[in-house]
Every structure is written in C-alpha cells, then in structure tokens.
Amino acid sequence: MVEVKCLSDDELQNELDKLGFSPGPILPSTRKVYEKKLVQLLVSTPCAPPKKNGPGELDRAQDNDDSEETGAEAT
Q: How far apart are the C-alpha atoms of 50 and 52, rounded to whole Å?
C-alpha cells in the first residue's frame, strides 16, 4: 500500500486521479482531507478495474428505453 503521508502534493493528486477522484488544490488546509480520501479509495477499490459495457450493449439499452417511451406515449 502507498505511504500516503510521504507523498508529495503532486503525487497525492496523481494517485487520486488514477482512482477516478479529481481533487481540488492540495494545500496545507486540504491535504489531510485528500490523504483520508486516498486511503478510502485504496481500501475500497478492487484489484481489477470494473468491466465497462461495450458500445453494442449501450445501444441495445438505449433502444429498449426508446421503445418503452414510445409505448408509454401511445397509451
């Protein structure tokens, strides 16, 4: 695990970015908050990134939504 307190401000920001969290400016007044957030993300993040739906699956989901809306309008 990363030693959070030993990271520079830039390293802390990069680690948060890697985990999908976009921090604001890292200042002495905000650093502890971002250190805590990084620890939370490291503990809760699975080892493998989640698998995202491909474009084909997204298109099918949108088609289903459109057909339901059309059906709702007809009634």
A: 6
